[in-house]
Amino acid sequence: QVQLVESGGGLVQAGGSLRLSCRASGRTLSSYVMGWFRQAPGKERILVAKLSRSGERTYYADPVKGRFGISRDDAQNAVYLQMNNLKPEDTAVYYCAAALGAFTATATAAYNYWGRGTQVTVSS
To answer: What 3-state class would DSSP assign to 88?
Structure first.
């Protein structure tokens, strides 16, 4: 079992940057596939980015490719989502999640542990 807490959300102008943090306790994050999801009002929760247990493989959803980057700091037992060139359509609650299964899984049901989310709002 691992506990996840997100931070770093807020209000930012279009074109700006934010870095979200997901800090873990109870387990080492390198034991899990780590994912960042987001959910906008009235929309389904979707996978934005994920990182393999080794830290060598990443996945990004098409709308964020080239703008977002996922990374892990083993010393801090934390995962980060660097978000650059933010757009109003990036506005959502962002969730950190940990999966026990394969890196290839993308569905929300494949992720076993979740943070409570952090709000990101991008104004035009």
So the answer is: helix
